Amino acid sequence: MSNADPGRARPVFQWLAQLFALMGKESKQIIRDPSSYLVAAILPMIFLLLFGYGITLDAGVMDIVILDESNSQSGLQLQENFAHSPNFRVHQARSRSEAGRMMRDSVISGFIVIPYNFEALLVGGQGKAAVAPIQVIVSGGEPNTANFIRGYSQGVIANWQQTRTPGGTIQKQPVDVAPRYWFNPAAKSRWYLVPGSITIVMTLIGTMLTALVIAREYERGTMESLFATPVTRMQILLGKLIPYYFLGMFSMTICALAGVFLFEVPLRGSVFALFVLSSTFLMPALGQGLLISILTKQQLLAAQTGLITGFLPAVILSGFIFDINSMPDALQYLTLAIPARHFNTALQTVFLAGDIWPVFLPRMAFMLGLGAAFLVITYRKLVKRLDV
């Protein structure tokens, strides 16, 4: 004969029934709100198209001019090396002033000057190599392109130096350096921008949408009706969070499928790891959004606060575009409190490297800690009391 007391089980079922009723109410509001479809389905694709096609950090082919003032055999060989480089498109100019005008008119991004005494300086009187300066003049208006031109020019010049003899003739180099890029063999910026855009999309859904949830209830006057019901604070929070959790996972699935099949970004890790990491990130994202909603109680103010404290830090301080290691030390420590930083690192790892749990677990611990802090504060701030 069973010793189970049906009277004890009844409150549990009643508690769950109330929770499901709140979740159903919130789900109906999401379905009836056109902005939910916009944020859940349309905005993710816009972000993916923007970051996948519209934004690139790759060098591409750069337009330059080679000015050979030496008219020497070595200068001609160096020109040919630049002309055969896949990174440069060489234009013609007769003088430095003409090259300068072309750079001011944005026809070229820089020019290389081989000085008139290049051959004489290249080889000294005793056959010893001397210093032969080569000017690399670039436009400082585009620092990223300028750094690319400087770096690739140094590579072309270094390759040319390795394949020549002091007499200016070409020799076969016994050592062949074969560079290899791990995790991103083609060095495509799209391969890490697309996973990063998933971080931005889930921040948008987790923080921005949930920041409006309770604020909307206060503005419509329905929060008082909710407080009058026999539901607990925990039920209210879970009833608000769980529907947006599924909405966030739905958007993540759309973004992941588009990233793999549309942008051809490899998913070297498992789908299980991807869903575990995404679920972990939604905990602090949703908690932060609900906390903002409870504190502000106004949709406009909640949206502005969510933008400043959630969306912008996810773009600027997550390592999505800007390298965290290049930031000041104080700012690097500050990024540890940004959930998007940990999620972005974990996402890039699961897409490009695979299931590396020693990398995932510390990031997950940070996200769970931040999420627990947000939810505890939110729970304490949500008081079932009418303001009179």
What does this structure look like?
- Helix content is 63%, strand content 5%.
- Residues 125-129 have low confidence and may be disordered.
- α7 (190-209) packs antiparallel against α12, α8 (213-220) packs parallel to α11 (271-296) and α11 crosses α12 (299-316).
- The chain has two domains: 15-55 and 188-381, no CATH class; 62-162, 3-Layer(aba) Sandwich (abc type-2 transporter like fold).
- The protein has 15 helices and four strands.
- Strands 2-1-3-4 form a four-stranded mixed sheet, with helices on both faces.
- It is mainly α and 388 residues long.
Topology record:
Blueprint: H1 6-32, H2 34-54, E1 62-68, H3 73-83, E2 88-91, H4 96-104, E3 110-114, H5 118-122, E4 135-138, H6 143-162, H7 190-209, H8 213-220, H9 222-227, H10 233-261, H11 271-296, H12 299-316, H13 329-334, H14 339-352, H15 357-381
Parallel strand pairs: 1-2, 1-3
Antiparallel strand pairs: 3-4
Summarize the structure.
Helix content is 63%, strand content 5%. With 388 residues, the chain is mainly alpha-helical.
